[in-house]
Amino acid sequence: MDNRLDKTGSVNSPILKPALYTEEDLLMISALQHLLFCPRQCALIHIEQQWTENRFTAEGRIMHERVDEAGKESRGRIRTVFGLPLRSLQLGLSGRADAVEYHRQGDESSSTHFWQPFPVEYKRGKPKKNDSDLVQLCAQAICLEEMLTCSVPEGAIYYGKPRRRMTVVFDETLRQKTTETAFRLHELLGSGRTPQARYEKKCDSCSLLSLCIPKVTGTSRSVQGYLAKAFNLES
Question: What mean pLDDT, rounded, does the chain reach?
Fold first, then answer.
């Protein structure tokens, strides 16, 4: 069976995933979002170890650093832990949750009361058109379920632009997409190959634009021709 990746980073035929990954197999949860945004960006970051910042990534990094520094807090029926380490051998992923709230369910004096985990992810911008943020949060929920042996049905994403939370329900469809994305991530990074560039409008907002140069590497045009046009050297 031919299980190679195509030039876009997609698996071109089904492959049986392992029942459980090992500690050595663990990849970063954040890489799921990179993969869904662009397989080439994901490979540049996680295979070639290339990274540059722009204003958007810097603002996002600062927001996450502030959240991670918060430690713990308790307010009424909610206890919050910031920067909680996460791991799932089912998905082969590890990372940190921006915040995990524990919501007290039932009367504390009752023998049936418990603390329901509720992961919260912080984003500097606004909701995206794709599901990358939802998949990243769902992966955190699956990690919590595996670590704590419990059910995590919901979480939330706080977006800095509208300054509000969006509740996310971890239904079967989202869980399936998260599992499939994690498997694609292992296949891409395991291949050690960076997909060919393909320019799209979203490339203009990517912090790796100057490294990827998709208008050059994604076409058959020569670098000399591209530079000639860029510097108005063509007649």
Answer: 83
Please give the distance of CA 18 from its chain centroid, rounded to a whole number: 21
CA geometry: angle 232, 233, 235, nearest 5 deg: 100
Copy the structure tokens of residue 98.
């921006």
Residues in the chain, total: 235
Please give the span between the terminal C-alpha atoms of the chain, in angstroms, as a whole number.
51
pLDDT computed for residue 69 by the predictor: 61
Burial track 31-70 (b if 16+ CB lie within 10 A, e otherwise): bbbbbbbbbbbbbbbbeeeeeeeeeeeeebeebbeebbee
Contacts of 213 (CB under 8 A, 6+ apart): 197
Helix (H) or strand (E) segment spanning residue 159: strand 154-159
Written as one letter, the residue type at 16 is: L
Query: Helices then strands (H, E): number in the chain?
Result: 8, 7
More confident residue, 102 or 61: 102
List, for residues 145-178, the tens digit of each pLDDT value. Answer: 999 999 999 999 999 888 899 999 999 999 999 9
For 23-196, CATH number out of 3.30.1330.10, 3.30.70.360, 3.90.320.10, 2.102.10.10 equals: 3.90.320.10
Phi, psi of 177 (to 5 degrees): -65, -40
Question: Any idea where the domains of the chain sit in the sequence?
Answer: 23-196, 201-235
Whether the pTM exceeds 0.90: the reply is: no
Which pair of tokens denotes residue 68?
A: 């991670």
